[in-house]
């Protein structure tokens, strides 16, 4: 499937982050606060994709930052800080899903395609100025995608969110899970195929996914 283009969505430079991480590891709370500012939006968005609830996502993101502050001594600079933080957030979300048996509820189709991220592999080629019927179809498709994402395995759901909603490189995701890139590609392929087939069964091949 086509892969969303562009680099990681993180808007800040690695140099600033590296300096802040070193300061934070030395006990500088203000430096860590700045790291939170830089990463809060992307981490909260990731949590929201996995949990399907903004309040739960905010809470999970907060817990992830608290855990990160207490675990800075374990951070290794050869791993991007954002990736390390994302993995902590994923684990927080996984724990919450297990405890409360939550299911993923993705954002509506419109918010998914207008939230500033690069278009993902499941984004339909829609009119940039859609009419009421197109918007209604978009919302309906979004709900169907959400249903299918909720049925994915934990691994597929997390890998899918990291790749297509955070635009994380495959090598980075593989490092996060401690597997090879081929395994990540397999999970992405299976997740995307399941969603594609479900949509084609409902709408036929007319949706250019």
Q: What is the helical fraction, as a range of percent?
A: 55-70%
End-to-end gap: 8 Å
Whole-number tally of structural domains? 1
The CATH topology turns out to be Rna Polymerase Sigma Factor, Chain: A
On the 0 to 100 scale, the average pLDDT is 75
Q: Name the CATH architecture.
A: Orthogonal Bundle
CATH superfamily: RNA polymerase sigma factor, region 2, helix turn helix motif
Give me the count of strands: 0
Work out the radius of gyration: 18 Å
The profile of the biggest β sheet is: none
Shape: elongated
pLDDT below 50 for ≥5 consecutive residues: which ranges?
A: 1-12, 101-119, 123-128
The portion of residues forming beta strands comes to: under 5%
- Please identify the top-level CATH class: Mainly Alpha
């Amino acid at each position: 499937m086509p892969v969303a283009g562009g680099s990681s969505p993180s808007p800040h430079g690695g140099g600033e982050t590296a300096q802040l991480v070193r300061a934070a590891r030395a006990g500088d709370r203000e430096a860590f606060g700045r790291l939170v500012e830089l990463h809060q939006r992307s981490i909260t968005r990731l949590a929201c994709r996995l949990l399907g609830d903004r309040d739960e996502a905010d809470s999970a993101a907060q817990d992830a930052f608290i855990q990160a502050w207490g675990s800075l001594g374990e951070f290794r600079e050869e791993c991007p800080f954002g990736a390390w933080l994302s993995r902590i957030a994923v684990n927080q979300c996984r724990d919450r899903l297990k405890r409360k048996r939550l299911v993923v509820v993705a954002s509506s189709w419109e918010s998914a395609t207008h939230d500033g991220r690069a278009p993902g592999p499941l984004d339909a080629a829609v009119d940039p100025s859609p009419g009421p019927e197109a918007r209604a179809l978009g919302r309906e498709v979004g709900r169907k995608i959400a249903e299918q994402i909720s049925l994915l395995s934990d691994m597929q759901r997390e890998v899918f969110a990291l790749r297509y909603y955070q635009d994380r490189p495959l090598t980075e995701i593989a490092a996060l899970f401690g597997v090879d890139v081929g395994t990540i590609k397999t999970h992405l392929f299976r997740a995307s195929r399941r969603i594609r087939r479900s949509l084609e069964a409902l709408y036929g091949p007319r949706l250019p996914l």
